[in-house]
Amino acid sequence: MINEEELKDAIILVFANKQDLPNAMSAAEVTEKLHLNTIRERNWFIQSTCATRGDGLYEGFDWLTTHLNNAK
């Protein structure tokens, strides 16, 4: 999906959710599984979250807002 021409300039934010669960993959594990480290031509960020508590959501959206504003 990220290789689609329409998304070539897209900024990527990944939420590693469910961090409140003991068997949840860490942000580093999600990065590895999704091969995010191979993405060199665009900005990407992974944020650990627990959506039920709201942990990490604002931080992720703050990063996205900052990078979208800088891209203008």
TrEMBL record:
Taxonomic superkingdom: Eukaryota
GO molecular function, one term: GTP binding
One protein family per Pfam: Arf
Gene Ontology terms: biological process: protein transport; vesicle-mediated transport
Residues holding GTP: 17-20
Coiled-coil annotated residue ranges, if any: none
InterPro entries, per database record: P-loop_NTPase (IPR027417), Small_GTPase_ARF (IPR024156), Small_GTPase_ARF/SAR (IPR006689)
Family per similarity comment: Belongs to the small GTPase superfamily. Arf family.
PANTHER family: ADP RIBOSYLATION FACTOR-RELATED
Protein name: ADP-ribosylation factor 1
Organism from which the protein derives: Plasmodium falciparum MaliPS096_E11
